[in-house]
Amino acid sequence: MAGWEYSKFQNVPCAAEDCRHQGKGETMNRDANCIFCKIIDKKIPSKIVHEDDVAIAFEDVNPQAPVHLLIVPKKHMPEIHSITVADREIIGHLFFVARSIAAQKKLDHGYRMVINNGRDAGQTVFHVHLHLLSGRAFHWPPG
Ligand code: 5GP
Ligand code: ZN
Does residue 64 belong to any structural domain of this protein? Predict the structure, then answer.
């Protein structure tokens, strides 16, 4: 695909083998006051289920379903509303990681992915994250 530099990153470990994310892990910024940045830097413990150069996935400390994981870019970005076009591969990568975890965990009955953006949507941690929920039936419309 034009514009991708996949060949440079073929050896970057990634759970999703067909995800053509770019390896930008070394240059990713952190916010010293951000709880997810502290988890990424292992300054706060978490139950990590996946990690690569771009993203980390760990168990939510207050699970809302039998499976409740958070898939988090290593780059600190406060909310979806503040991302730029330069972040599109990182954001896309989160979904490949989610799919890969869902396959590994055999979430064959379905799973829900949620991103809360802003206070009224229920966002409480202002570092972008994708919730991956499974193990029970979910209602629609959401509350
Ligand atoms: P939000 O409400 O911003 O969409 O989601 C934030 C999520 O982060 C919540 O589901 C909350 O339970 C989880 N969370 C907050 N602090 C921590 C923490 O220190 N460790 C872990 N594992 N999850 C956290
Ligand atoms: Zn952060």
Answer: yes
Closest ligand by atom to 61 CA: 1
- Tell me if 30 is assigned to some domain: no
Tens digit of each residue's pLDDT (9 = 90 or more) over 91-128? 999 999 999 999 999 999 999 999 999 999 999 999 99
The pTM score is 0.86
What CATH number did the domain enclosing 58 receive?
3.30.428.10
Query: CA neighbours within 13 Å on the CB side: how many for 134?
Result: 18
Ligand 1 pocket residues where CB is under 6 Å: 35, 44, 46, 58-62, 70, 116, 122-125
116: containing domain = 37-134
Cβ(131)–Cβ(38) under 8 Å?
no
Radius of gyration, alpha carbons of the chain: 15
97 within some domain: yes
Q: Ligand 1 pocket: which of 41, 51, 70 to mutate (most atoms <8 Å of CB)?
A: 70
Q: Whose CA is nearest to atom 1 of ligand 1?
A: 123
